[in-house]
Amino acid sequence: MLNIGLIDYLNTMPFHYDLAERLEGVDVHFERGAPSLMNRMLKAGEIDLAPISAIETARHADEYVVLPGLSIASLGAVKTVLLFSWAADMSELDGKSIALTDHSATSVALLKILCRDRYHVEPCFTVTPQHLPNMLGAHDGALVIGDDALVEGVHHRKLTPASGSGELRPYIFDLGDEWLKMTGLPFTFSVWAARKDKAQALEDAGVFDALYASTAMGLTEAGRDTLAQGYAGRLGLPAGVCRRYLRDLRYTLTGDDLAGLKLFLELGLEGFDWNTLEFWGDRVAVPNL
User: Is 174 left (phi over 0), alpha (psi -120 to 50) or beta?
Assistant: First the structure.
């Protein structure tokens, strides 16, 4: 049996648009969870293939292969990786307490890079369960990702700070936008990675073919519309908000996305060598960076 990890966030829905149907009759099992769970399960060998935090792919480059042409990236605002803060400017967060989501590795690393290299501040970071009211009730800032971030960003509700000074609306910083302002490049949050010892079996079983085909269908105009309509009620958001969100994301890991990914990994991992990343097959030409 081959084990495939899936993340139940709106931004991953194009990948598994009709993946299960395409793999009907193939001996596969699906595991679902947050990005941090996919990171842990792939490393432990409990799953063989998953969309994982980009930085985790680099940390374990000796064990993984990356599927070319598949990613979640943004050129500017991503809307689902947000820093909520009681400070009006990120430059005011030096020495302040920031609660970090326990759902992600890449977003945490990105925030730390932005604090260090863009704003030259050193906040105090604490990983906590992802729940914005609790996070901002005890800290000066909160990093929230995924569907929770999308909903909180749209509603931008009033919350109570630790000072108990009455309900206030926190300031919101979109980390995709902050990265673009610092580098002029897209930011790649997630890539699809397979364990090297399982990649050929996944190829032979048709899993890679099915994943690429499912993603292609999910990224059509009709596919995005179907996903947005189906997911809107789950999030309590207008379908138009979900549709635009999916339309604005980048899924194809093209030259600029790779350049942004390379820079991020070099900034986030001391001594990182891009050439240690291995891309599987030749479905998409990966530019020489």
Answer: beta
